[in-house]
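HUMAN: Spend a minute on the protein record below and explain its fold to me.
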Amino acid sequence: MTGAATIAPPRGRPPGAAWGSGGTARAVAPIVLGVSVVAVWQLIAGSGLVEAYLLPSPAAIGAEIVEFWPSMVSAGAITGLNALVGLVAGTLIGIIAALVASTRRSLDGMLAPIVAALAVIPIVALAPVLNTMFGADSQTGRQLIAALAAFVPVFLNTARGLRQTQPVHRDLLRSYAASNAQIMRTITLRTAAPFTFTGIRLASSLAVISALVAEYFGGPRGGLGGLISTSAASSAYPRAWAYVVAAIILGLAFSLVASGLERLVSRRR
C-alpha cells in the first residue's frame, strides 16, 4: 500500500431523519402531544371515574365554545386591550427606568429595592384597591396591574443588557470623538436589544395573566376573567373551561407576536 486507507463515512440517515426536517418535527411533536392529552382527557371524563363538575369533557367544552363564541371574542377583546395597554406602558417605563439606572450607579442602587418590592406585590391584594380607586366602571386599575407586571421583567432584562457593553468598545468610539448619545445608540442599545426583547416576551404573558386575575376582583364585567368567575359561580363548569381556553389562546397570541417582533428586529440589526 502506497498511502493511508481512507474510510468513508457511513451512508445512513442522520438521527431524526425519519421525522423529516427539524422544523417539521418541532411543529408535529406538540400537536401529537396535544391530541394525545385531549384523547386521554376525553376517555377519563367519559368513563365516570371523575365527576363532570370536577373535570368536564373536551367535547362538552367544545360545545360551549361553539355556542358562546361571540361572547368569547368580545370578552377577549376587552382583556386583550387591557393587557396590551399595560404591556406597552410597562415596557416603555421599564426601558426608560433601565436607561436612567445605567447612567449612575447610585440611581441603580436606588431603583433596585423599589423594583424588588414591586415584583412581590400580590395582584389579588392590589386589584381590589385599584378598582375602588378608579371606580367600578373603569378599566384603568386593570391596565395599571398589567403595566406593573410587565414593568419588572422588562426593566431587569434591559438593565442587564445595558451592562453587557464592553468598555473597550466605548473607549474606541470616544477616541473617534463620538458623543455619549452616539455611543448609546450604536453600541449600548444594540447590545441590550436581545435582553430587552427577552423581557418583553416574558412580560407579554404576564400582562395577560395579570389582566385576567384583576378581572376577578370588581370593576366592569365583560372580560374573560370576570366571565370565568361568573360561569364557575353558577356551576356552568364547561363554560368556565371554555373561557379558560379563550384566555390561553389570547396569551399564546401575545407571546407569538412578541416573538415575531423580536425576530423582525434581529434580522434588521
